[in-house]
Amino acid sequence: MLSAVVSPRWRSAAGFTLTEILVTLGLGLVSLATVTSFHHFQLQTLRRQATQNDLQMTARSVIDLFTRDVRRAGRNPNCSAGVSAIADAKQFRVRVQSDLDGDGTPGGLEEDITYIFKSGMNGIDRVANGTTATLVDNVVLENSLIRYFDETGAEITAGESGLAAGQRDRVRRIRLQVVLRSTTPDPQSMVPPRTWIANDVDLRNRRFINNISCP
């Protein structure tokens, strides 16, 4: 009767030595760490982009709303004395009025609007006829401000007390400069995401005031 004889050398070649297993395990762990690190980097990058996009969209929304409100400021079809295109003008606060419904007062919906950079420069409020809406919150308003210009393009600087009545009457253009910085640093660079948007808005009703017969 014949029997197969398997040599010890053949049996040894059929498996893995402890050293080979440890080396393979080590390489696998390195590969896993590399893949994990890459995915973590990608995730942090996506989060930063999302934060940056959110800041940009928020700033753009504020600019668009401000532009609409300022363009309507000063509408006064009845030439009523109680309607002032700019009722208050400071670096961090502006109040505009209009008579959209033609009743001779700025008391109607969306006729008396104030933009306020909140105390501590951490947000922007919009007050429309006494109702406050927070447009931006939990950010840093870095170098954000409101600037005023006359018909020649010269800036009328608003001090701490704001523009006087005569200075407000000379304003023909308002610039809203919004610089938003996130309160959360980017884990990769430790620099918080930031966006900057500015827009100049003409007070159209003041530019065409000579076309109507107001005294």
What fraction, in percent, of the residue positions are helical? 25-40%
Per DSSP, the total helix count is: 4
Q: Give the DSSP E fraction (strand runs of 2 or more residues).
A: 25-35%
Q: Give the class from helix and strand content and strand pairing.
A: alpha+beta
What does it look like?
There is one protein chain. The chain is an alpha+beta fold and 215 residues long. The chain has one domain (42-208). It contains 4 helices and 9 strands, in the order H-H-E-E-E-E-E-E-E-H-E-E-H. A 5-stranded antiparallel sheet has the order 1-2-3-4-5. Strands 6, 7, 8 and 9 form a 4-stranded antiparallel sheet that branches.
Give a concise summary:
By secondary structure, this protein is α+β, with helices and mostly antiparallel strands. It has helices at residues 8-13, 18-72, 165-170, 204-207; strands at 86-89, 93-97, 112-117, 123-128, 131-137, 139-141, 145-149, 173-182, 194-202.
List keywords for this structure.
single chain; 215 residues; alpha+beta; 4-stranded antiparallel β-sheet; 4 helices; 26% strand; disordered C terminus
